[in-house]
Amino acid sequence: MCKGLASLPTCCLERYTELTLHREGLLGYGTSRVKKLTALRLFLRPTLEECLRWKESFEKLLSSKYGLCAFTAFLVSEFSEENIAFYFACEDYRTTKSPGKLPAKAQKIYDEFIGSDAPREINIDHETRDITRDNMLDPSPSCFNMAQYKIYMLMAKDCYPRFLRSPAYGDLVCQAKPGDRAATQPRREKAA
Fold first, then answer.
1. Rounded to the nearest 10 degrees, what angle do helices 81-94 and 10-23 cross at?
2. What does pTM read for this prediction?
3. Burial class of residue 88, CB neighbours in 10 A (0-12, 13-18, 19+)
4. Could you tell me if 163 and 169 are in contact, meaning their C-beta atoms sit under 8 angstroms apart?
5. Each residue of 100-136: pLDDT tens digit?
6. Cα separation of 157 and 159, whole Å?
7. Which of 63, 98, 173, 187 has its CA 20 to 30 A from that of 109?
8. Distance (Å, rounded) from C-alpha 100 to C-alpha 88?
9. CB neighbour burial string for 137-157, b if at least 16 within 10 angstroms, e if fewer
10. Are 56 and 187 in contact (CB under 8 A)?
């Protein structure tokens, strides 16, 4: 029987929901467990065709709202959510329109993901870390490009294939219905 993301530990689902919904600006970090799990149930409803498209390329997975959510939940279950969080923090940073905001945003990303005492330290080589540290002296929209590329390649070559082989992905494919657009809509409870 297919369980979908229900096969992941509850703590992973809660953390995934918190990260995703906070990133989308839908919920704050202090949101209750019930709201998080309800939001997760309503959030993941891909069609079979969409699930199968994710196998075509890592880019197609990331460009799909549902694919990104499922992949993020998988990374949370493997305790490597910092990779996707760093990747999207860099994407957000690169699109910062005000040059005056770049130094503070760059420092925040560096402190969270790259610094020696970073709470969500990413796995990059010493050379990349040094180049990124040097780029911090004069932050530009491209100062994290090398580190972001390394993390992207790590996810594409390691995490993505494992995700496609995972029971969570298999369960999503099993649960999805061909061309069922209703499957992408939130379920509504019937009034008694």
1. 0
2. 0.72
3. middle
4. yes
5. 999 999 999 999 999 989 999 999 999 999 999 999 9
6. 6
7. 63
8. 20
9. eebeeebbebbbebbbebbee
10. no
* Residue 117 Cα distances to 7, 81, 112, 114, angstroms: 33, 17, 8, 8
Q: Residue 23 and residue 40: Cα distance in Å, rounded?
A: 14
Angstrom CA distances, 126 to 23, 150, 158, 159, stand at: 29, 12, 20, 21
Beta strands in 133-172 (DSSP E): none
Tokens matching residue 62: 């990331």
Residue holding tokens 């996810």? 155
pLDDT digits (tens, 9 = 90+) for 19-71: 665 555 544 444 454 454 445 545 557 889 999 999 999 999 999 988 998 99
Helix (H) or strand (E) holding 157: none
What is the length of the chain?
A: 192
Tell me the HSE value of 175 on the side-chain side, using a 13 A CA sphere. 20
User: ∠ at Cα 70 (66, 76), nearest 5°?
Assistant: 145
Dist CA 87 CA 123 (whole Å): 12
